[in-house]
Amino acid sequence: MKKGLLAVAVAGALTMGAAQAETSIYGSIRYDYNNIKQEIEAGKGNGERVSDFQDQGSRIGIKGSEDLGNGLALVFKLEWGFDGMEGLNKGDGFENRIAMIGLAGDWGTVALGRLDNPFKQTIVDGSVIDDFNSRWSKSSANAALNTAFKQKNGTLDRVGNAIAYITPEFSGFSANAAIIMDDEIFAEKKHADVWTLNAQYQHELGFYGKVGYIQGYVDADKSRAWGAQLGYKQDMFGITASYADGKHSTAAAKKDKGWDLGGYFAFGNDYSSTIRVNYGQDKPKVDGQGEKTKRWALGFQQDLSERTRVWVEYGEERQKQAGETVKDNGLSIGIRHDF
Hints:
This protein is mainly β. The chain has helices at 5-15, 118-123, 128-131, 140-149; strands at residues 22-37, 49-55, 59-69, 72-81, 95-105, 108-116, 158-166, 173-180, 194-202, 207-217, 222-233, 237-248, 254-267, 273-282, 285-286, 289-290, 293-303, 308-321, 324-338. It has a single domain, classed as Beta Barrel (Porin), CATH 2.40.160. A hairpin with a 3-residue loop joins strand 11 (222-233) and strand 12 (237-248). The protein is globular.
């Protein structure tokens, strides 16, 4: 399964040289060619198909750990995203993705700073849709979270001003909890603005399950969401399913329910060739009225080494607007190298 920040925080303390301080630089360069059918405006016919070279989430970071003795270790991680294709040509500089420091021991890990949202990791990380390479492949379960917690500075995919606790793993079981406190963005509450609690189980045969809940304030009105993910994954094939139910308790009563179902099949030497497919739906509602959005994606990935891959992916999104179907679709052909 794909590991997020919380797993990395624990692994960093255990694998990066327990007897000394260790620091390493890592990163990922992700470029692709996009052929996109632009969004159809209701009542105005079809849009134009355009081509573009894009960055698909390149990043660079520093991570490390230090043995403090008596079974205690300090762990840290700093990560920045950047648009290598456009750079400063469009005013895009480095984006602060992760900035955390923590303490880890046999009792678990405490992490403080800007973190991956543990609830988003519960419903998205490890799923088939998360393994796609292009941004055309979108999680419908995560769309439900973003409907409930949409805020003026973006979504809650990553959260600053946060503290999290991650338990050790007990026979495949683990859990985490996090609290967000921000007196500028979430000014409606005096102390804890948003909190989340999540648990997961991983069986050695490949079965896993995750469930989580998140609640709090991104404005004057309460938001909440719950979600779950189930799956079975091995080297040759796997299937995953995710679900999220979100609500923003405004006067207009915003709600959204989203789900994803995906599978993959790997073949070739060391299972270096992978075919993926995913289908998902979500239906945001305001005052009980809303239109369903349907998404599907199909992709092929070829691993050239443990750190280098190429891919071909196609994704489509359909939504009803003013009684007409609006369709977006895109083809992505790309390359990625991790270091």
